[in-house]
Specification:
The chain has 165 residues and is an alpha+beta fold. The chain has one domain: minor pseudopilin epsh fold, CATH 3.55.40.10. The protein is built from two helices and eight strands, in the order H-H-E-E-E-E-E-E-E-E. The strands form two sheets. The protein has a four-stranded antiparallel sheet, with helices on one face. Strands 4-6-7-8 form a four-stranded antiparallel sheet, with helices on one face. A hairpin with a 2-residue loop joins strand 1 and strand 2. The radius of gyration is 29 Å and the shape is elongated. It starts with 10 loop residues before the first helix and ends in a 7-residue tail after the last strand.
């Protein structure tokens, strides 16, 4: 039975080891459970990343308006208008559309508003100390763009963390 073949390797030694069907099913079930546990956190972080990028884009646009006021020596008006999933930014004669806007614009009391106007003076400062936003995807996630009181530089940051539940 264990006679050597032409290669000199006994038949029993040549037998290929493989996983049983039960072992494969157990591994697949464990991998499925791991994906099920990790997927919600990844999705939540992806939404927060999209919101952070959108807010960074708005902060950059506001910073450009601020620098325009300093460069020209004139006041610059900026109007933000929220419409569905779009934010319209009117700066002087330009209209910039930020599509797929994931945030709701808020007033100082935390209520949704449709528009707000900012004016940058010749030193690049605005009377508005901050703009507040709430995530449409996760309403507990709050963001703001705060304006530096000395130089007026806008900086976007997250105010609240997601609840783990």
């Amino acid at each position: 039975m264990n006679r050597p073949l032409r290669t000199g390797i006994p038949l029993r030694a040549r037998r290929i080891r493989a996983f049983s069907l039960l072992e494969l099913i157990v591994v697949l079930v464990l991998m499925g459970m791991a994906v099920g546990l990790v997927a919600p956190a990844v999705t939540r972080n992806a939404g927060a990343g999209r919101e952070q990028r959108s807010l960074g884009e708005l902060a950059t646009t506001l910073s450009a308006a601020r620098l325009d006021a300093i460069r020209t020596g004139r006041t610059v008006n900026v109007e933000l208008t929220a419409a569905k999933n779009t934010l319209l930014v009117r700066h002087q004669d330009e209209l910039r559309t930020l599509a797929n806007w994931p945030l709701a614009l808020l007033d100082s009391n935390g209520n949704d508003i449709e528009n707000i106007a900012l004016t940058f003076d010749i030193r690049g400062r605005t009377a508005q100390s901050r703009l507040s936003f709430r995530s449409r995807e996760a309403p507990s996630r709050m963001w703001e763009i705060a304006f530096d009181p000395v130089g007026g530089v806008p900086a976007a940051h997250r105010l609240t963390e997601d609840s783990a539940g």
